[in-house]
Amino acid sequence: MTEIPANLPSQPTLQGERVAFTGTLASMTHREAGQLAEIHGGTAAQHVSKHTTMLVIGEEGWPLEADGTASVKLQQTNRYRDEGLEIRIVSESDWLGILGLHDRIDEVRRHYTPAMLSQMLDVPVTVIRGWERSGLIRPVKQVMRLAYFDFREVASARRLHELLKSGVSRRQIIESLKHLRDWLGGTERPLAQLELLADDGELVYRDDAGPVDPRSGQRLFDFDAAPDADVKDSATVSITQTNEAAQEKWTAEDWFRLANRHLEENRLEDAVEAFRLCLLEWSDHAEVHFQLADTLFRLENLAGALERYHMAVELEPNYLEAWTQLGCVYAERQAWDAAQHAFRIALDLHPDYPDAHWHLAQALARQGDNQSAKPHWEAYLKFDQRGPWADIAREHLEQG
């Protein structure tokens, strides 16, 4: 939630500017941004016209329409610029810098855990973890296996995935990203992300011989999408006669990959079976136990989930997410002392772990101990100001 200043700045920074916005803003809504433009001496415009002097590009995903083309406002702006009109195109971060809202820039560039991103972007945690394993998104830092991600990169991956899923061709997206590169710069990473997605938006995994479709066992060969394309389209050639024949030679890594594919497709029972087959060879892999526990938790098999989370932390005592999820299972069973104990272990290991603060606060509040929950709600809000969890934290603090 953006706090709009009550008074005009002493020296309006947007005096004489007519500002329009395109794409989804990461720091606020378009309405709030328009109010800020007015407060700083400018005029907010819903549409681009010959009177527009500045177009601000939102940084949550990319300014692409449902058909994969650049946003209408961006296209119109560039037509006017070709006619000789002076219209500045600036990123959301640069615009916030012009207004002196440097704390907002920090918010846009803040780093988030998979669970936080899942809440903010409405993407399942299992999908986010799959994107990480494939290289579609890259952690900016890791603390005891816990990955933190740049919000903008994950939002970009989600947008590309959505466009491909809706039937937009890779070629159209490539063309649009190239135009955005000419206008804005900084599109190298989404072009690289696009290489990791098949035409239907699903991930393409790679081994030493090249890309492989994990569902069919088919080898993918690359062909140029266009003579000057930076990213290639894919065609498939079968390298296995049947999935059954191929599976007879599968390794633990193959079963792990299949299990995660089942998770992405919400085939939870199949994922459980694949994880168990993986554990026949990888019984000492804490991550496999953790993933199996998560799947059992989603199937409401709390006893099975507890066993596997405990196995994960026994194998790897510093497994932060496993401790937090263990606490969540105990909280689901209303075993409050055990839940708090697990959350506090996670915080002992990583005092700045946002998820553990949030879950511990939630557990304390559900027990009616709002006073003890308060510092943990406050601690969480240091790391997140705009997601659904942040809204819940603020509601609790307002209620006292």
Features:
about 400 residues, 4-stranded antiparallel β-sheet, 4-stranded parallel β-sheet, Rossmann fold, Serine Threonine Protein Phosphatase 5, Tetratricopeptide repeat
Structural class: alpha/beta
- Count of helix runs: 19
CATH topology of the largest domain: Serine Threonine Protein Phosphatase 5, Tetratricopeptide repeat
Largest sheet: 4 strands, parallel
The CATH superfamily name of the largest domain is Tetratricopeptide repeat domain
Strand content: 5-15%
Provide the CATH top-level class of the largest domain. Answer: Mainly Alpha
> Regions with pLDDT < 50 over 5+ consecutive residues?
219-242
The total number of structural domains is: 3
Q: Please state the second-level CATH architecture of the largest domain.
A: Alpha Horseshoe
Strand line-up of the largest beta sheet? 2-1-3-4
Series of H and E elements: EHEEHEHHEHHEEHHHEEEEHHHHHHHHHH
Helical fraction: 40-55%
Q: Kindly state the mean pLDDT as a whole number?
A: 85
| Spatial extent as radius of gyration | 24 Å
Number of strands: 11
- What gross morphology would you assign? flat
